[in-house]
């Protein structure tokens, strides 16, 4: 990653190390002429976020209830679980991007 920054490229990466998850961004630092003179890295421990995402995804996928996730501004379906698909006779691909009002 450091080599990429020194070559003038920004790199964003997520890594898992020993049950911990990190988000890292590496950017080039340039002088007034635009030449790369250094690189800077920022890393954040995102383990708790990843654990929460896993718990949510597990509940979402295994719930006995139909669940829809909507865009709050447009009310378009952003995601739905398999129960919602079966109850409404659509595939997930058919439902995503549709307005919620297409359902009964």
Explain the overall architecture.
- The chain is of the alpha+beta class and 104 residues long.
- The protein has 4 helices and 5 strands; from the N terminus they run H-E-E-E-H-E-E-H-H.
- Strand 1 and strand 2 (20-30) form a beta hairpin.
- The mean pLDDT is 95.
Summarize the structure.
The chain is an alpha+beta fold and 104 residues long. The chain has helices at 2-6, 47-62, 82-88, 92-95; strands at residues 11-17, 20-30, 36-45, 68-70, 77-80.
Keywords:
104 residues; alpha+beta; three-stranded antiparallel β-sheet; two-stranded antiparallel sheet; 4 helices
How do the helices and strands follow one another from N- to C-terminus? HEEEHEEHH
- Strand content bin: 25-35%
Residue runs with pLDDT of under 50 for 5 or more positions = none
Sheet with the most strands, sense and barrel status: 3 strands, antiparallel
SSE topology:
Layout: H1 2-6, E1 11-17, E2 20-30, E3 36-45, H2 47-62, E4 68-70, E5 77-80, H3 82-88, H4 92-95
Antiparallel strand pairs: 1-2, 2-3, 4-5
């Amino acid at each position: 990653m450091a080599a990429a920054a020194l070559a003038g490229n920004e790199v964003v990466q997520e890594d898992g190390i020993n049950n911990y998850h990190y988000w890292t961004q590496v950017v080039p630092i340039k002088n007034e002429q635009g030449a790369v003179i250094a690189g800077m890295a920022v890393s954040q421990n995102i383990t708790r976020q990843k654990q929460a995402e896993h718990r949510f995804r597990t509940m979402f996928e295994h719930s006995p209830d139909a669940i829809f996730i909507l865009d709050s501004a447009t009310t378009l379906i952003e995601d739905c679980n398999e129960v919602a698909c079966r109850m409404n006779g659509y595939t997930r691909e058919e439902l995503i991007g549709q307005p919620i009002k297409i359902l009964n």
